[in-house]
């Protein structure tokens, strides 16, 4: 009888030690730290190139980094009404192009004032500060997955991001006006075409979010 009691006592002690060890281990596992950087919309710009070229402004955005100062999430919103042309000197022609790009035939900035990019995965490349971003470009509430490469570096609580040659095809979002691939061209489109391909460079500056 005494041997049985000792055996039961040892089993109970073993279970208690196991539970205590398990609880301590879970308590000591620190969650991965995340640091948020908010976009400086005054110092961040998008440069677009589609036969002509110009700029777009961001309306907001954020980049999340880990404890190793590596980006793990990026989200940006773009003010589509901010489209400007910078290569046409004639102000009348310049304004005409800007109005066409904002019109319902193209980006319909009145109905869809913002476009967005939301990353789902960010891969680190072999080069220093180089990353590959994969995510959705959302125009007209329609997300199209794409991949681009960019550099990210942090200096004195300021994050600098540069992404060059982001290539988009406007027909992916159903923007066929003045496209050679337009299945139903209008009469006024006869003799005029605009490239389907849009090349974008992003210059981003963000500041560490204060707690």
Beta strands, count: 9
Mean pLDDT metric: 87
Helix/strand structural class:
alpha+beta
CATH top level assignment of the largest domain: Mainly Beta
Walk me through this protein's architecture.
- The protein is an alpha+beta fold.
- The chain has two domains: 30 residues; 175 residues, Lipocalin (Beta Barrel).
- It contains two helices and nine strands, in the order H-E-E-E-E-H-E-E-E-E-E.
- Strands 1, 2, 3, 4, 5, 6, 7, 8 and 9 form a nine-stranded antiparallel beta sheet that branches.
- The longest helix has 27 residues.
- It is elongated and about 60 Å long.
- The N and C termini lie far apart (63 Å).
- About 11% of the residues have low confidence.
How would the blueprint of this fold be written?
Blueprint: H1 2-28, E1 35-39, E2 45-50, E3 52-65, E4 71-85, H2 91-102, E5 114-124, E6 130-139, E7 142-155, E8 158-169, E9 197-208
Antiparallel strand pairs: 1-3, 1-9, 2-3, 2-9, 3-4, 4-5, 5-6, 6-7, 7-8, 8-9
């Amino acid at each position: 009888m005494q041997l049985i009691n000792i055996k039961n006592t040892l089993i109970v002690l073993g279970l208690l030690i196991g539970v205590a060890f398990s609880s301590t281990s879970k308590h000591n596992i620190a969650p991965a730290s995340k640091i948020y950087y908010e976009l400086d919309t005054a110092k961040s710009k998008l440069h677009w190139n589609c036969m002509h070229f110009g700029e777009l402004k961001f309306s907001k955005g954020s980049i999340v980094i880990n404890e190793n100062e590596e980006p793990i999430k990026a989200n940006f919103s773009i003010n589509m009404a901010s489209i400007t042309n910078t290569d046409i000197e004639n102000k009348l022609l310049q304004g005409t192009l800007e109005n066409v790009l904002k019109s319902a035939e193209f980006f319909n900035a009145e109905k869809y004032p913002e476009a967005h990019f939301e990353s789902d995965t960010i891969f680190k490349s072999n080069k220093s500060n180089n990353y590959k971003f994969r995510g959705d470009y959302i125009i007209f509430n329609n997300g199209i997955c794409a991949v681009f490469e960019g550099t990210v570096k942090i200096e004195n609580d300021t994050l600098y991001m540069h992404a060059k040659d982001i290539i988009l095809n406007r027909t992916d979002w159903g923007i066929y006006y003045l496209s050679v691939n337009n299945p139903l061209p209008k009469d006024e489109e006869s003799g005029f075409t605009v490239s389907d391909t849009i090349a974008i460079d992003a210059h981003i500056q963000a500041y560490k979010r204060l707690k």
